[in-house]
């Protein structure tokens, strides 16, 4: 069996180690949690005047606590106050944005989560309506009108999975195939959304962007 996961497969008990998985499982770890500090850094670069940034999480997600801790540490290092916002339903997402407005937050970072991904249209619409600069964990958010996203390339990950599936079908054992980590990352900027928000995207971000949506 080959897998694609955003959690640490060793901590989750899926494999014995990255180098030698053991058993009948191997695949790709997307480094989902590890990228949250980088997303905060990008958001701070985009809105450097923001002293308060919201962090939207689904508290029922088992990986949330680790990601929250990583972002809090990054925020302290930058001298940014982080406001934790929890949402497990459509109405709680609405309430989270209402809180952002009351606090005059300068931006929002969305933690990777299947539920929040399923509500991306709502998230993008609320961020636009309330003019909240928001960074998202997957390209699909930016393609739906979100301001900016940063993530490991899912296409590249699936390519690695296909290679592993082929090798296993040809006789290789999953136990001997190291768990891969992505080397391709995608920074996507939606310039149309930036203009609507009255934001000027820094040249440094534009130069690093893998895709610019106009």
Secondary structure topology:
Blueprint: E1 2-5, E2 26-29, H1 36-46, E3 52-57, H2 64-78, E4 81-86, H3 90-103, E5 107-110, H4 114-118, H5 120-129, E6 134-136, H6 139-143, E7 148-152, H7 154-169, E8 185-190, H8 191-197, H9 203-208, E9 211-213
Parallel strand pairs: 1-2, 3-4, 3-5, 5-6, 6-7, 8-9
Antiparallel strand pairs: 7-8
Give your account of this protein's structure.
This protein is of the alpha/beta class. It has 9 helices and 9 strands. The chain folds into 2 domains: 53 residues, no CATH class; 150 residues, Response regulator (Rossmann fold). It has a 7-stranded mixed beta sheet, sandwiched between helices. Strand 6, helix 6 and strand 7 form a beta-alpha-beta unit. Helix 1 runs parallel beside helix 2 and helix 3 packs parallel to helix 5. The longest helix has 16 residues.
Mean pLDDT: 93
- Strand segment count: 9
Give the overall shape, derived from the CA principal axes: globular
Strand content: 15-25%
Helical element count? 9
CATH top level label of the largest domain: Alpha Beta
The CATH architecture of the largest domain: 3-Layer(aba) Sandwich
Distance between the termini: 40 Å
Order of helices and strands: EEHEHEHEHHEHEHEHHE
Query: How many domain regions?
Result: 2
Query: What does the radius of gyration come to?
Result: 18 Å
How are the strands of the biggest sheet laid out side by side?
4-3-5-6-7-8-9
* CATH homologous group name of the largest domain: Response regulator
Poorly predicted spans: none
Fraction of residues in helix: 40-55%
* Structure class: alpha/beta
State the major sheet: 7 strands, mixed
Q: Which fold name is given in CATH as the topology of the largest domain? A: Rossmann fold
